[in-house]
Amino acid sequence: MQITVPDYAGGSLVNLISEIEHRLIGSAPSPRLHPNLAEHIPDASTYVLCLFDGLGAQQLSHPGGAALEESMQATIDCPFPATTTVSLSVLATGLPPSQHGLLGYQAWLPELGVVANTIQWTTLWGDRLDIDLEGFLPSPNLAERLSANGVETITIQPGNFLETNLTKVLFRGNRFEGIYNIGEWVDAVVQLAVQPNRLIVAYLPHVDIAAHVSGQESQEYADALGAVTTAWELMCRRLPSNAVALATADHGHIDFPKNKQYKIPREDHDGRVFYGDGRAMFVKGEGESLAAQLPATWFPIHEMRHWWGPGPHHSRFAERLPDGVLVADDDALLLHRFSNEHLIGNHGALTDADRLIPLAVHES
């Protein structure tokens, strides 16, 4: 089993965000990138941060990712667990998960006594949650700190994301620009990057969707990877001279055929709460005995709480933690009774395929 804890001291997504913030306003709450990584990023008055959901560094060996692979200067770590809402909360706050408080895709909320789906912000069975979405993450967030220092933060995303629960959680203080195709995405980035003193976060979900639903051997995945690579190429050709474009991701992806997916028996749900992700299954309750019957290793919480990052911890960090985590074997996926059994691509653990994300750079 491969376990590599994210390098929150200077080699992770949080440090990339911190590096950008420091370049723009001269300060940031988290450590900057290690010097050997920071040297790849030129100074600029405006930064474009392209986030290609689900495009781990190892996936760039696919023929469709050649242009992005050519731009890749290094790899960095996404946070633990390697999943979208945790990483996007890092982007939103400039803080590691231990400090921003969103600890997993499925997250235990002790104040409500339920596990939340943090994409939909519902219970795992779909009921609405009575929660202050815009106040869930700490304040001031990245956009608010930048705004206070004269830098505008703009997020470019699919237009149907506007006013969703997830957008309310993540993008407080951002200007939202909705797009509906790759051409609109490129145009929006190029036009908005002309102005100085901006951070433009440009997001595309294509690879993540295709990897989850169809897997990396599919034509759908090849098409999705081709689409985001084309978007990067077209944007780089037209990027104004005052701007620097960076590309990264929130996590990688691994395909798991049905014979590598393992359901936790219903009787083992009694007295336990399961949440987190199928690659790193969080357990409130006794979990060590389950590891004997599953392709997984049990890590009690006192051995691995640092996986979420350093202190000072979020005020609810300790009570949102599980009693431990069942980390699936490198080629295995765990499913509890509310898990989606129909997805081929998955992520969440600490293998290179789960964790490593690209740092690509383009300077006009």
Low-confidence stretches: none
* Gyration radius, in Å: 19 Å
Shape, per Cα inertia axes: globular
Sheet with the most strands: spatial strand order: 2-18-9-1-8-6-7
**Strand percentage:** 15-25%
Number of strands: 18
How are the secondary structure elements laid out?
Elements: H1 13-25, H2 35-38, E1 46-52, H3 66-71, E2 72-77, H4 84-93, H5 97-100, E3 106-109, E4 114-117, E5 122-123, H6 142-148, E6 152-158, H7 165-170, E7 175-179, H8 182-192, E8 198-204, H9 206-214, H10 219-238, E9 243-248, E10 254-255, E11 261-263, E12 273-276, E13 280-284, H11 288-291, E14 296-300, H12 301-304, H13 317-320, E15 324-328, E16 333-335, E17 345-346, H14 352-355, E18 356-363
Helix pairs in contact: 8-10, 9-10
Describe this structure in words.
With 364 residues, the protein is α/β, with parallel strands linked by helices. It has helices at residues 13-25, 35-38, 66-71, 84-93, 97-100, 142-148, 165-170, 182-192, 206-214, 219-238, 288-291, 301-304, 317-320, 352-355, and strands at residues 46-52, 72-77, 106-109, 114-117, 122-123, 152-158, 175-179, 198-204, 243-248, 254-255, 261-263, 273-276, 280-284, 296-300, 324-328, 333-335, 345-346, 356-363. Helices cover 29% and strands 23% of the residues. The strands form five sheets. A seven-stranded mixed beta sheet has the order 2-18-9-1-8-6-7, sandwiched between helices. A four-stranded antiparallel beta sheet has the order 12-13-15-14. α8 packs parallel to α10 and α9 runs antiparallel to α10 (219-238). The radius of gyration is 19 Å and the shape is globular.
